[in-house]
Amino acid sequence: MTNIYQLNQLCFAYANKQALSLENLQIEEGKITALIGANGSGKSTLLNILAFLASPSQGEILFRNQSVNKRDLIQYRRRVGFLAQKPFMLAGSAYDNIDFALKIHNQLQRPEKILKVLKQLDISHCIHQQAKLLSGGELQKVALARILVLAPEVLLLDEPFSYLDQSSAQALELFLQSYTRKTGKTLIFSTHDRLQGFALADHVVALADGMEVMTPLINVFHGEIKQHQFHSGSLCIQLPEAISKGRHASINPQDIVLSTTALESSMRNHFLGRVIMIAEEMGVVRVNVDTGVIFKVLITYQALDELKIKLGEQVWVNFKSNSVVVF
Ligand SMILES: Nc1ncnc2c1ncn2[C@@H]1O[C@H](COP(=O)(O)OP(=O)(O)OP(=O)(O)O)[C@@H](O)[C@H]1O
Questions:
Q1: Mind listing the pLDDT tens digit for each residue in 223-277?
Q2: How far, in Å, CA of 250 to CA of 216, rounded?
Q3: What residues does ligand 1 touch, defined as CB less than 6 Å away?
Q4: What is the CA(19)–ligand 1 centre distance, in A?
Q5: Is 253 helix (H, G, I), strand (E, B) or coil?
Q6: 125 vs 146: CA distance, rounded Å
C-alpha cells in the first residue's frame, strides 16, 4: 500500500474560524476515497488543500512522500485535477474550454483527444455549445472532461454528482470506477450521500466539524447511555460493557445482518421491521428497514437472492454490540 497523500497535524482556519483539524490522514494511491459529512463539515476545504489551492495554517502535507512547501504549490497544482462544486467556464464552446486547458498545460491540442473524453462522459452533443449556457449537469461533466483530458495523477471532485439525475449519476459512478481501475489513478470525491460514498469508494473519510470521525455517519441515533445500553426514543441498543460515554450511536450499514427469522447468534441487537426500500448501488444492494426508526443496510446480491425479501415484507435487523460506534 502506497500513500499518495499524508497529512500530519493539519489545521486550516478562515480568518478566525477553524474549519479543519486533522491529526493524521493518509490517502492511498490508486484507490477511491470518499469524503462524507454534513454541510460545513470541511469537505471542500480539505479538497482545496489536497488540490494545493489553499495552504494549511498549521501542519504538514506529504505528496508522494515529499513534504509540500508553500512556495511550490503551483507546481503541485498542475499534477492534480480539481473539479469545483461550481466550475468556472471561459467564454467559448465546451470544445474551446477543453482545448484551452490542453494549451495552458503545454499538452498537444488534439481534437481526437477531446472527442474521446466527451464521448466517455456521454456529452458529445455539447461539443459546440457555449460553455456558459450548459445545464448544471452538462457543465459539471464538461468541467470533468477538461480535467480528464490532462490525465492528472489525482482526481479531486467536489460533489460531482450533485447536479446529475439518477441515471447520469449512476453512469458517472460506473465510469469513474472503471477509469480508476484501468488507469490506476487516485480519485478523491466529496458527497452528501453517505451510502453512495460507501458503495463507490475503497475508503471513506467521515468529517464532522472539521475533524475526522470514526463513524460511517449512517444510522446515527442520538440519545444517552444507561447501564450499557444506548437509549434513543423507542430504540434501545446493547453496547459493549467498556462504553460508558457518548451522545450518538452509529452502525455501519455493512455490519448489519438481515434475516427473515429471529437469529440465534452472538449478536445482541435484533429489531423487527419492514422493508421500505430496495435499490441497486454499484454492485451492492441498499435496503432500508423501518423498525420504528429506519436502518440503512448494504447487502450483496447473493444475500438478497438468499433472503428473497420484497418491499413491505418483515425482516430482522441484527448487529453485534461491538459494531456500534458511540461518539
Ligand atoms: N471562504 C470562507 N470564508 C469563511 N468561512 C468559510 C469559507 N469557506 C468555508 N467556510 C466555513 O468553513 C467550514 C467548512 O466549510 P466547507 O465548505 O469546507 O464544508 P463542506 O463540508 O464542503 O460543506 P458543503 O457540503 O456545504 O459544501 C464551514 O463552517 C464554512 O462556513
A1: 999 999 999 988 999 999 888 888 888 898 889 999 999 998 889 999 999 999 9
A2: 7
A3: 14, 17, 19, 37, 39-45
A4: 7
A5: helix
A6: 15
Whether CATH 3.40.50.2000 fits 3-212: no
In CATH terms, the fold of domain 250-326 is: OB fold (Dihydrolipoamide Acetyltransferase, E2P) (2.40.50)
Give the neighbor-by-neighbor strand order of the sheet with 235-238: 224-226, 229-232, 235-238
> What pTM was estimated for this model as a whole?
0.79
Asked whether 9 and 58 are in contact (CB, 8 A), the reply is yes
ipTM score: 0.97
Mutation to probe ligand 1, out of 10, 45, 57, 211 (largest number of atoms < 8 A from CB): 45
Amino acid at 111: P
Residue nearest atom 29 in ligand 1 by C-alpha distance: 40
Domain-wise residue ranges, the chain: 3-212, 250-326
- Report the sign of the C-alpha dihedral through residues 161, 167, 173, 175, in that order: negative
Label residue 65 left, alpha or beta by phi (over 0 means left) and psi (-120 to 50 means alpha): left
Q: How far is CA 312 from CA 51, 106, 290, in A?
A: 46, 58, 10
The pair phi, psi for residue 165, each rounded to 5°, is -75, 170
Measured between alpha carbons, how far is 29 from 202 in angstroms, rounded to an integer? 11
C-alpha cell at 57: 495554517
Q: Work out the widest C-alpha separation in the chain, in whole angstroms.
A: 68
CA distance linking residue 320 with residue 247, whole number of Å: 19
